[in-house]
Every structure is written in C-alpha cells, then in structure tokens.
C-alpha cells in the first residue's frame, strides 16, 4: 500500500503508457477501452437521467448473452430482463433509471461491508495475517487449502465475517445495520428464502469453512458460516448499491454528508481490494477496460466507486461466464467512456 515515491509513480506511469500504446496499435485487439473517447473532462460531470436512460436502452439486450445464476436455486427465479441503473452524483443526488424498485440480493457485495467492520474491530494487520492481498485467476468459489488469497473471494470473505466480534447472529446484524446506515434505508433486510437456499446448497462454501477451521484460521461452529449466507442474502436496489459506491468513494462519508464513519484508511483499503479482486478472475481485464474499484455479486448487482466523485449501482441478473452482470458491465463501460471516469486516463 505504499507506492508513493515519485520514482515509482513515474515508472508505473511510463509502463502504463507503454502498455497502452502497445495495446492500441495491436490491430487484432478486440477489447473496447474506457478511456479518452469523449470531450467531457472533469469538473462537474452533470450526469442526468437522459444519459443513464440512453445507456440503459443501448445495453439492455446484453442480458441475452448471460445467464441468471441458478446454483443457488432461489436466485434462478429472478426475471432475466429486469434492469436498473443508478448514480449518486458528486453532491449526493440520486439519479435512477429502469426497474428502480426491483430488489435483488447483494451477494458478494456484502463482502466489502464485512471487511470494513472486521478491519475496524480487529485492525488491518490482524485481518490480513490470515489472508492475502493477492488477485486471483480462480472462479469465485474455488480455493486452495492454505490461507485465502484475499477477502473478496468466498474463502477470505467467510473468514472475514468469522472475525467480526459477537455471538450468534450479531456479526450479521452489524453488517445489515451498516448497509442500512450507508443507504439510509432502514427497510433493508435479508431474504429468508435465498438464505435457506444458500444454506441448503452451499456445500463448497461449507467445505472451505471446514478447511479453514482445520487450518486453525476459523474458530467456532457453522453459525459463523450462516452469518456469511445471511449477509449474501441482504436485499437492495440499484440505488442502494450506488450509495455504497459513493460511501467508499468519499472516505466513508454517506451520500447526505454524514461523517459518522469517515475513515480514509478504510476506504482506501476497500477500494484497493475492489480494484484487485472485486470482479473475481475478470478483475485485471475489468481494471484495464473500466479502471474503477467495483464489486459484483451473483445476484446481478455491481457497485462502483469513482474516487472522490460518484457512486454507481447497476442491476441486471444475467451473468457472464465470470459471474458478473453482463448488461451491468456494458452500462458501466459506456458511462466510463462518456465521462472519462477511468482512474488510468
Ligand atoms: N452467496 C454467494 C456464494 O457464496 C456469493 C458469491 C457471489 O456473489 N459471487 O456462492
């Protein structure tokens, strides 16, 4: 976390330039990049409903290229063509388009909230003595028997939640209360049916839980794992995700300006984890094409932080082969291109 020397900056910047130019001049490269295609530069972004609705209309058909997750049977019931796009702008104003009232389970997006709480309680050093800062080339639920790679993959996330203080359901309740606080939405709760479905079918997660228990990383019984299943089953809307994105983009300041949890260290850690591993094994390519800290969930949501600027929340349940929302990714990509939002301009 200490890449601050000028020499290092220059080195990183020139390496980036070199790789950018090499990639741009590669005629067979098919990837669409998120940089420098618009005259809109910084200042106030002035994102409005028309912008979001144009982007949504252009990309909504992408759900046909994905598939709604059904490995947790209850998730498979979601209508595939539901779609929503939300932004919390620089002033904390919410702009919503599409199926704005559609709730869905936040799934892996809950991992960033659990990490925030575990690090606040136990300190970053303690939490990361049990897991790494590594990226991954592994799909979301396969890991080795050693220490988890990072807190964004399932093993590390299950471990993170197990480190939050409190008996029984208390760690989950803390996560739920934090989501309610960040979104200022006390009606947020978890879906009992998705929770039960995850609990009944989450054998890989249960397997990883016991491997980590065997390795001495986790203490306690399956109640700890149930808290993870519950946090994944928290239901929210795209607007709620945009507010979570805004919160981490603004040093843990809420969209309405409330600074109760303001903490630049925590937001830097969370955003760095989102950038490194928030989109699973697609994180590197995502970073190249979109270049923003983001976290996806298999419920079809993605939350994005544009540091010191805006929060973005998207929802479309059909997932690509990496487990990320297909249409959601394309909506974010278009917004990033139009407003030059990539960190790596
Ligand atoms: N509850 C899901 C699981 O553990 C969360 C994974 C995800 O959203 N990628 O399988």
- The averaged pLDDT comes out at 88
Give me the strand/helix succession.
HHEEEEHHHHHHHEHHHEEEEH
Alpha-carbon Rg, integer = 19 Å
Q: Specify the number of helices.
A: 13
Fraction of residues in β-strands: 5-15%
Main β-sheet, spatial strand arrangement: 3-2-8-7-6
The SS-based structural class is: alpha+beta
How would you describe this structure to a colleague?
43% of the residues lie in helices and 9% in strands. The chain has helices spanning 6-24, 49-59, 110-122, 124-127, 154-162, 170-183, 192-201, 203-214, 223-232, 238-249, 264-277, 283-289, 326-339; strands at 67-68, 84-88, 94-98, 104-105, 235-236, 294-296, 301-305, 311-315, 318-319. The strands form three sheets. A five-stranded antiparallel sheet has the order 3-2-8-7-6. A two-stranded antiparallel ribbon has the order 1-9. The chain is globular. Residues 1-42 have low confidence and may be disordered. Glutamine binds at residues 107-108, 140-141, 154, 198, 205, 232, 297-298, 323.
How would you concisely characterize the structure shown here?
Helix content is 43%, strand content 9%.
List keywords for this structure.
single chain; 345 residues; alpha+beta; 13 helices; 9 strands; 43% helix; 9% strand; globular; disordered N terminus; binds glutamine
Give a topology summary.
Elements: H1 6-24, H2 49-59, E1 67-68, E2 84-88, E3 94-98, E4 104-105, H3 110-122, H4 124-127, H5 154-162, H6 170-183, H7 192-201, H8 203-214, H9 223-232, E5 235-236, H10 238-249, H11 264-277, H12 283-289, E6 294-296, E7 301-305, E8 311-315, E9 318-319, H13 326-339
Bound molecules: glutamine.
